[in-house]
Every structure is written in C-alpha cells, then in structure tokens.
Inverse folding.
C-alpha cells in the first residue's frame, strides 16, 4: 500500500478484516489471516497503525505463521502533492524455522485534477520493503520482495448523481527481478453499494508454470448512522459515523480460493468549511 494515500483523509477511522485461503488441489487445506487498523488525522499529518497475522500452511504459500505491526505517517505538502512513509516489523514461525523483519515503505502521490471525461486523476510511486524482510531457510525465498518499486495511476471516468465509476492500474518491479501488473474498476451505485472488479499478473509465476489468477470481485455496502446520542461521540464531534462492510472472492493460481470480509468505520463528518480568520475586535 502507498503510505501517501492517507494524506488527504480528515476523519478518525477504524478497520478490521479477515481472509480465508482454501486449497482445493492435492487435498484440502485451510489458511487464514486477520487485520486491524486505525487512522488518526492531526495538524502534523495523518498517522496510521495496523497489525496483522497470517497462518498459511497451504502448499502454494508455505509461509507458516507471521505477525506484523506497522506505523505510518503522511502529509499533504500542497493540494496536489502527498508524501508518506511507514515502518513495519514482525516475526515468522514456520514448521522448522523462524525469522524476523524490519523495513520501511516510502510513497508519493501527485493529483493532476480533471481532464476531459477523467476526474481526480492521480499518479503514485512507492518504494516498498526497504530493509530486512522474512527469509526463512526452509521457505520459498525472501518475502515480501526487497526494494520493490511500484508505479500507479487512478482516475474517475463516470460521475453522476447515482453512479460513479473509476479505474486504476499499477506496475511493479519486485527486487527488480520480476514484473507485476494490476488493473481494477470500482463502480459506486446510489452512493451505497460499491462493486469492485480487478485482475493481477505475476510474470515469475507465469514463467514457472504456476498459472494466472482469475479476476477478483468484491462488494461493499455503506451507510451513515446517527451516533450523536452517545455523550462520548458528541464530545468528539462524531454526531454521524459512516460504516462499510465488504466481501471479496478470487480464484488464485493452482486451485487456491481466497475469500475476504471486512468492516470500516469513519467517525464524524467531513470538514468542508474554510477557517474563519478575524483580525482585531
């Protein structure tokens, strides 16, 4: 993830998610992973904290059990330029080996604005996994790949009252020894339902005859709730809260099924009023 993407966010947020992995070839095996995170905007920038654990015994991804914590910071230098950085650390315990990680990500985003039918065009660059990553002696090699450069572009191309659609694509160069490609389309319907479809390709997996992933499909439902009745919520100015619940499915390489569910809460309303400056009495 690009740590600069959170720079324009104005609301305190909390999120959690779970992913299940189901191996359907050469016998059934199951793995899963969880994620929890929080976001806090301040006058000095936007801070994020996440923690995730993975328990993956399936043969396609024999990574064992791992836990990773991450702290990130981002800031908008101008209305168009966002910068971000994050640092993460964790431990891995395999069947017969263990390892640790300590690394950082650096991110940059530039917002071009609108042109023709394209709205809110933005380009990003990320230098990820800069440091010591997991590399157990009995595992499939270092992961995530060290010094991964990723470039991306995203834009809206349809924006009406009840329907919005946007696309994104990115290219990656893990350790400068591989090439990845990703493409996605998001469609928001009546401001409540978001349908996401995407596809990704990994050149190394194709060369090794591991096949290609099928496109993923995800659905998210969101609504706004009145939370101002609580004294604590009112004190914080969180009279309203936006909730989102999402689910995703994908058929990965060689019979590996992925199912994910998640939830997110954005507290309070967006700040759309310009500051009022009064000079004198």
């Amino acid at each position: 993830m690009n740590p600069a993407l959170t720079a324009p966010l104005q609301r305190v947020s909390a999120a959690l998610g779970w992913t299940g992995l189901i191996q359907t070839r050469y016998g059934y095996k199951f793995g899963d992973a969880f994620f929890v995170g929080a976001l806090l905007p301040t006058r000095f920038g936007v801070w994020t904290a996440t923690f995730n654990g993975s328990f993956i015994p399936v043969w396609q991804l024999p990574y064992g059990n791992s836990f990773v914590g991450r702290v990130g910071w981002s800031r908008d230098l101008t209305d168009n330029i966002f910068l971000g950085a994050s640092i993460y650390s964790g431990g891995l315990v395999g069947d017969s080996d263990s390892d640790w990680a300590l690394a950082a990500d650096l991110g940059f985003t530039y917002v071009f604005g609108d042109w023709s039918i394209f709205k809110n065009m933005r380009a990003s660059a990320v230098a990820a996994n800069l440091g010591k990553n997991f590399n157990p002696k009995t595992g499939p090699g270092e992961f995530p790949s060290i010094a991964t450069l990723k470039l991306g572009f995203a834009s809206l191309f349809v924006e009406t009252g009840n329907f919005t659609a946007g696309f994104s694509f990115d290219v990656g160069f893990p350790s400068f020894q591989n090439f990845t490609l990703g493409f996605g389309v998001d469609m928001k319907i009546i401001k409540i339902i978001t349908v996401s479809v995407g596809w990704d390709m990994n050149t190394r997996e194709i060369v090794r005859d591991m096949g290609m992933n099928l496109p993923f499909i995800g659905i998210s439902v969101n609504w706004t709730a009145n939370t101002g009745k609580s004294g604590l919520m009112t004190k914080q100015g969180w009279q309203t809260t936006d909730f989102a619940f999402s689910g995703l499915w994908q058929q990965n390489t060689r019979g590996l099924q992925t199912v994910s569910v998640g939830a997110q809460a954005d507290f309070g309303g967006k700040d759309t009023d310009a500051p009022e400056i009064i000079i004198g009495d």
Summary: The mean pLDDT is 86. The first helix runs from residue 203 to 207.
